[in-house]
Amino acid sequence: MLNKPTFSIVTCTWNSAATLGDTLASVASQTCGDVEHIFVDGGSTDGTLDMIAAYQGNKRVLRDVKGGISRAMNEGIRHAKGEYIAHLHSDDYYFSNDVLATVAERFAADKVDWMFGNIQVLKDDVLQAPHTMNPFSYQSLAAGKAFVPHPAVFVRKAAFERVGVFDEQLKYAMDIDLWLRLGAVARPSTVDRTFTVFRDHAGSVSSANKIKARQEEFGVRRRHMDKAPLAFGMYCLRYMKRMRQLRRDG
User: Which residues form a coiled coil (predicted)?
Assistant: First the structure.
């Protein structure tokens, strides 16, 4: 293994023993083996740390990292040595064993700072159909129409040095804030195939506190409205409609 691997995969854990096995197996099975796997643990008391200790991959373990998910992800970035960084949480796993090989080939061909593929959602043990991937533009991102699935995003480490890391004050929309910063300076490459399976369950941050999440997302998008004011106006209309629906459903 090179001192500077191609990929740094950051996995944040906290009492994740029920799902972590799939995450570990999906990374270990990748045909591109030039990987360091960084685990950022928030103080697990189940079998999570034992599973990580038994894992044979090239790994680093950061223990008892407190302060929320944004800080945990940032700690992984700060310790990463790889050229490309991805966050694969302990709920999620790569869809096939050639995901990293595909990503490496596309980075080499497209010379971009970041890229993303698609995800499929696993809900109630049923794998849902993938989302439709629409053409990317900064305007569509600012309008909330471009779908950038965090578990399927890969970022060149130098790009984090350019635009910064996740805002640790945010609980829900830290990824959207980062994509808006990245998208303003670098167009991503997109790959219309499933990279990652995302588990949707009652404990998922994205599934709980939906109104608070939408409110935080609005504040994040308002930060960046000067880069695409018309697109932000389009987003506002969609935001009001969604909030009315959420309040009716609640």
Answer: none
> Which among 198, 175, 190 has a CA at the least distance from the CA of 69?
175
- Single pTM value for the model: 0.94
DSSP 41-98: ES---SSHHHHHHH--SSEEEE-S--S-HHHHHHHHHHH--SSEEEE--TT-EESSTT
Average pLDDT, stretch 49-68? 96
pLDDT score of 1? 45
Cα-based angle 137, 142, 144 (whole degrees, multiple of 5):
100
pLDDT at 206 over 60: no
State the Cα–Cα distance between residues 131 and 149, nearest whole angstrom. 10
User: What is the average per-residue pLDDT within 140-157?
Assistant: 95
Q: Residue 69 phi/psi, 5° resolution?
A: -70, -35
Distance of alpha carbon 215 from the chain centroid: 20
Between CA 95 and CA 114 the distance in angstroms is 19
What CATH number does the domain located at 7-249 have? Answer: 3.90.550.10
- Reported residue count of the chain is 250
pLDDT score of 188 more than 70: yes
DSSP-based three-state secondary structure for 49: helix
